[in-house]
Amino acid sequence: MANVKKAIKISKKHLLGIQDLSIADVNFILSEAKQFIALNKSKNKKLDILRGKTQINLFFEPSTRTQSSFELAGKRLGADVMSMNLNNSAIKKGETLIDTAMTLNAMHPDIIVVRHQDSGASNLLSQKVNCAVLNAGDGRREHPTQALLDALTIIDRKEKIEGLKIAICGDIVHSRVARSNIYLLNMLGAEVNIIAPSNLMPKDIDKLGVNRFSDMKKGLKDCDIVMMLRLQNERMTSSFLSSNREYYEYYGLTPDKLKFAKDDALIMHPGPMNRGIEIDTNLADDINKSVIKEQVELGVAVRMACLKIFCE
Question: Is the pTM of this model over 0.85?
Answer without folding.
Answer: yes
